Amino acid sequence: MKKFNEVAINKMETLIKELVEAYGPSGEEAAVRELIEEKIKDSVDRTFTDNLGNLFAIREGAAPLLMFSAHMDEIGVIVTHIDDNGFLRIAPIGGVAPHLLVGQRLSFKNGVTGTVYHEKIKALKELDWPKLYLDIGAAGAAAAREHIRIGDMACLHQPFVNLGGRYMAKAMDDRIGCAVLVEAARRLPGSLPQGVCFVFSVQEEVGLRGATTAAYRLEPDYGFAVDVTLVGDTPEAPLMAVSLGQGPAIKVKDRSVLCHPRVRELMIETAEKHKIPYQLEVLERGGTDAGAIHLSREGVPSGAISIPCRYVHSPSEMVDAGDVAHAVELIEKIIMVSWPLPDSGSGA
User: Fold this and answer.
1) Whole-angstrom Cα distance, residue 272 to residue 303?
2) Residues designated catalytic
């Protein structure tokens, strides 16, 4: 974080805290969107929101157009039934592991909070969604229905914590990507070599839906996802060449995209030129907005910058402050590269 002064660091930490603690499961991103728009509007030429709820923040400029996308939504649950005793039955929104919810607090948009527990089971392997219930302290169905309806969504209720150089919270996936883009926009100079659009997308956790329509509308020349990625640096973790504290990861592939070779190489060259630490990422499962962007219209050369994250899709996702700062710097430098217009005949 050598290029971040103390004021800038504190300002970004405040932003991260506000973002991760905001309510915003897939399809209910409005509070996050309003917060981001307020933070970024003075750093761009204009902002607007589309029909799905994606937020676009644009720096006007000549061709080519670069699109950077970070998703606003987080994993959560949806209420499917309210029983006679006031207990709520729930189903997942996004990739939620049921065993990680037991004993956790969940909050609804209206502020109602409850805790998750399970029916009697003989072994952990029996724990599945039909066994879970959410207790909001209601004394019966009528009391529960005064506050909650079928179809209401809840997300994890966990605070942001600074662990002395590492940050822990729910919803780092992908509010940390959103924070990185806001900070990168703040740092850009008045004149850019090309146009840039920062997109804060909706419904990534349920199928990259926001990025699909955003890329179709923008018709960018290049696309970049900014998201978290898994790591291989915890005890008995699956083998993966990504660790906390070693710099942001430049994606090679995941299940949704094979990143365009020239885009990837330009990103690597930029990192090396500016002595920004980086890692190369091959993610064997999962995907990002780049998976949707690169398939838009006749195709968009795309890449991705990933922030290494421990315990993804858990109540306590963890990132390294240095990786976050270097991700901001890398995006800033990538934007300042004079990107050529894509050659449709060059392939890979």
Assistant:
1) 17
2) 204
